[in-house]
Design a protein that fits this description.
The complex is a heterodimer. Chain A is an all-beta fold. Chain A is built from no helices and 11 strands. The termini of chain A are far apart. The relative contact order of chain A is 0.33. The model of chain A has no long low-confidence stretch (mean pLDDT 91). Chain B is mostly beta strands. Chain B contains no helices and 11 strands. In chain B, the strands form 2 sheets. In chain B, strands 2, 4, 5, 9, 10 and 11 form a 6-stranded mixed β-sheet that branches. Chain B is globular and about 40 Å long. The chains are: A mainly beta, B mainly beta.
């Protein structure tokens, strides 16, 4: 149980284009999903929290107009990197947690984005 | 301000011996702690957790100890196996919903288990 998938696993795009990354909870309903970014040899940096049916909550310093998050259903959240630039190249990871009395988050396998 | 600290960046142990990974935190509002294991280019995998009302939680080869007064927790792996070689993240959370349920991660410890 508690399986989270991400698609695509790897994407290469040209500077100035937009890229959408999908995060799905496969066997549970995720009331809350989180988007992280990881730089090489560094910890996970939380970018934003998305709740189904409401606006995402962004962490300080994260541009909400650049990283668009949509959580349209209890099993799907999307992160769109708009007008991508080489500095956006990174490993993006989502996680999901169900509602109720639970703290655990379950992570997707990650998406490697390379902007050329 | 780093609220969850994993001060040792790496640890190397012999196969079959005990691995002890340490974690310290500063926020007294944290009431739940988790350990995740991560391989390169993969998402973290949940290992074990502990509530602040407990001081020990055990699951197979993995045991987590919590010392609330010292704001310190540790993950013990016994016996260590080569497949345990990975980066281990300590994470903490305070009870809440939505964005208030976010996890705060340490920087991770790279564990190497030598055959």
């Amino acid at each position: 149980g508690a399986v989270v998938s991400q698609h695509p696993s790897r994407v290469i795009c040209k500077s100035g284009t937009s890229v959408k990354i999908e995060c799905r909870s496969l066997d549970f309903q995720a009331t809350t999903m989180f988007w992280y970014r990881q730089f090489p040899k560094q910890s996970l940096m939380l970018m934003a929290t998305s709740n189904e049916g409401s606006k995402a909550t962004y962490e300080q310093g994260v541009e909400k107009d650049k990283f668009l998050i949509n959580h349209a259903s209890l099993t799907l959240s999307t992160l769109t990197v708009t007008s991508a630039h080489p500095e956006d190249s990174s490993f993006y990871i989502c996680s999901a947690k169900s509602g109720g009395l639970t703290y655990e988050q379950y992570f997707g396998p990650g998406t490697r984005l390379t902007v050329t | 301000d780093q609220q969850v600290k994993q001060n040792s960046p790496s640890l190397s142990v012999q196969e079959g011996r005990i691995s002890i990974l340490n974690c310290d935190y500063t926020n007294s509002m944290f009431d739940y702690f988790l350990w995740y294991k991560k391989y390169p280019a993969e998402g973290p995998t949940f290992l074990i957790s502990i509530s602040s009302i407990k001081d020990k939680n055990e699951d197979g080869r993995f045991t987590v100890f919590l010392n609330k007064s010292a704001k310190h927790l540790s993950l013990h792996i016994v016996p260590s196996q080569p497949g345990d070689s990975a980066v281990y993240f300590c994470a903490a959370s305070a009870w809440g919903t939505g964005a208030n349920s976010k996890l705060t991660f340490g920087k991770g410890i790279t564990l190497s288990v030598r055959p």
